[in-house]
Structure to design on (614 residues):
């Protein structure tokens, strides 16, 4: 007898973790150390370029382009940076264009998580040039993309599977975000919601270890403070909580507008009659002009976010920052330069939320609305609506402010924004670009139905087995007699002790080239492939695909050589049809229940109209 289920290597229940998970986890921890160092180096490189561009000095110390005094030259500096980025994209790699996350998603979905090695170096370098010369982006996007590229590169060098490369890519990306913001939990959630498209121990454990390691490395660099520090918040009252949820819904509408505006600008650049290499320089003209009149729109602008959620900006300053930062960022990103989306979205969302909170506080002073909470909700809600990373957005706002009393309004506001975004927009700011290329991005993560049904529940128990010592001619006469079961397309073959030897198809049995005097055992050319009754339909489907067969003998779990049934591809489809039928019937019941009162009301009106008066 050939291999049973456990020997075939697929039919058994796979362990949640094994030696490969340990290996990937160790690699993820090492990758996190690298990502944390890259985050620190990239920030220093941005400061170096900012110092040189706006202050004429060679230093890697903190530098803010908003405090420069270069006059009209502030318009030329972003343009020069745009030219350099365009040249790097043209002659280095076109993959450096954009903010990196959509490209990483595309690599995961259609290219087995294989990112070209050169992007590991070109992406952070191009982003440093774009941001250091005044680009209105955050450093987190390029850091996330670089960490993911490094994870993919390690996976390619070590000959890992596509699933393991995806885990390493997500681990590197999560480590980059955790190292930048000190937000390990939200980094893991972001990886799950935007890159892994799954939640299972084999991928979750390495990503979580990488994220926590990178956050710990950030502490080694003496960055223990919250990125967006704000005053202590108070409990949200009942009615004020409703206002914060309404703020989230309005910001959700804004997230749709922001997403569509960015791609509208991108489409406009596609119409230009010049090579795309020059587009970043053209977009940088708008960055420079806006930066001349509103310097706070230049650069990363993390301080803008902190001031917005602390309500330390004037009403006019917040309105100008919200509008002008959006215009500058949308044009720059749409031009195809290198930069991130998180920080600009947080800036726009926090200022918009603060404006809505101030307006609500003036209209309803008795509710005790706190504009700072509204700003915090706006910051997270805009990202939740634009990216649909709901849980990551909520936890991120908490981790970067360390304000636990903001969690309740954050959850309500971000969920409202998420709801509005799902209702009004089929794609997101992360997925629209790759969706246009024909890539379908999963939007719902549900348990596999086939993994919830056991083979024994579906496989027919009435099975006809052939004896290995029968001759082919005897079986042919039985088939010609049209006896019950003789029309099956495949038959398990057993020996005298009823032990499975293999499966013969109807085609083999009726093939005229096969001599009729030979016994059935002579036509069994390979060991049997079977499935245990307590295995799942997913395991059965995997068996069929891996061994290129259409039917599987079902064996007793306690006696793996004893055939108790057989399962075919049609049985898998019937089981799936049962699920669809249950869903359809449930939807039909809801539909009928919804309209039944109207029908009853109409019938009552008709009966009243047909009843003779007095």
């Amino acid at each position: 007898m050939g291999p049973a289920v456990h020997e075939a290597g697929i039919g058994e229940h796979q362990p949640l973790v094994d030696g490969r998970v340990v290996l990937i986890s160790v690699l993820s921890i090492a990758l996190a150390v690298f990502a944390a160092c890259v985050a620190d180096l990239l920030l220093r490189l941005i400061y170096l370029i900012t110092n040189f561009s706006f202050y004429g000095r060679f230093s890697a110390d903190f530098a803010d382009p908003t405090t420069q005094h270069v006059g009209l030259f502030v318009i030329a500096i972003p343009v020069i940076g745009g030219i350099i980025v365009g040249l790097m994209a043209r002659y280095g790699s076109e993959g450096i264009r954009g903010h990196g996350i959509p490209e990483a998603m595309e690599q995961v979905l259609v290219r087995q998580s294989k990112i070209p090695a050169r992007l590991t170096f070109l992406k952070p370098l191009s982003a440093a040039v774009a941001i250091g010369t005044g680009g209105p982006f955050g450093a987190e996007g390029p850091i996330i993309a670089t960490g993911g590229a490094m994870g993919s590169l390690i996976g390619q060098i070590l000959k890992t599977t596509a699933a393991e490369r995806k885990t390493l890519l997500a681990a590197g990306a999560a480590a980059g975000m955790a190292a930048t913001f000190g937000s390990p939990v939200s980094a893991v959630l972001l990886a799950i919601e935007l890159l892994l498209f799954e939640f299972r121990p084999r991928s979750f454990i390495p990503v979580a270890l990488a994220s926590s390691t990178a956050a710990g490395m950030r502490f080694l660099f003496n960055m223990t403070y919250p990125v967006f520090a704000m005053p202590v918040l108070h409990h949200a009252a009942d009615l004020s909580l409703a206002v914060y949820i309404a703020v989230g819904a309005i910001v959700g509408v804004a997230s749709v507008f922001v997403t569509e505006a960015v791609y509208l600008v991108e489409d406009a650049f596609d119409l230009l009659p010049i090579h795309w290499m020059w587009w970043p320089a053209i977009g940088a003209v708008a960055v420079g002009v806006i930066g001349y009149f509103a310097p706070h729109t230049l650069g990363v602008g993390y301080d803008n976010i902190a001031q917005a959620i602390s309500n330390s900006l004037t009403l006019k300053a917040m309105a100008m920052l919200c509008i002008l930062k959006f215009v500058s960022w949308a044009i720059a990103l749409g031009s195809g330069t290198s930069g991130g989306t998180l920080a600009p979205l947080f800036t726009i969302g926090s200022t918009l939320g603060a404006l809505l909170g101030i307006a609500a506080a003036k209209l309803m002073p008795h509710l005790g609305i706190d504009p700072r909470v509204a700003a915090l909700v706006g910051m997270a809600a805009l990202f939740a609506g634009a990216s649909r990373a709901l849980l990551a957005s909520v936890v991120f706002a908490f981790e970067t402010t360390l304000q636990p009393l903001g969690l309740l309004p954050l959850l309500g506001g971000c969920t409202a924004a998420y709801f509005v975004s799902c209702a009004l927009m089929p794609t997101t700011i992360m997925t629209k670009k790759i969706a246009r290329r024909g890539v379908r991005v999963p939007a719902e993560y549900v348990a596999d139905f086939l993994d919830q049904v056991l083979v024994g529940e579906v496989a027919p128990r009435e099975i006809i087995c052939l004896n290995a010592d029968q001759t082919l001619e005897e079986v042919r006469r039985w088939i010609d007699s049209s006896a019950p079961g003789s029309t099956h397309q495949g038959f398990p073959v057993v020996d005298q002790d009823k032990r499975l030897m293999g499966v013969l198809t109807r085609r083999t049995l009726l093939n005229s080239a096969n001599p009729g005097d030979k016994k059935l055992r002579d036509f069994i050319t390979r060991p049997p492939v079977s499935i245990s009754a307590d295995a799942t339909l997913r395991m059965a489907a995997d068996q069929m695909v891996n061994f290129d067969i259409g039917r599987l003998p079902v064996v007793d779990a306690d006696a793996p050589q004893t055939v108790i049934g057989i399962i075919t591809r049609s049985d898998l489809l019937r089981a799936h049809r049962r699920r669809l039928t249950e869903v359809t019937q449930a939807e039909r019941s809801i539909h009928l229940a919804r309209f039944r009162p109207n029908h009853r009301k109409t019938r009552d009106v008709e009966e009243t109209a047909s009843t003779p008066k007095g």
The radius of gyration is 31 Å. The domain at 449-571 is CATH 3.10.580.10 (CBS-domain).
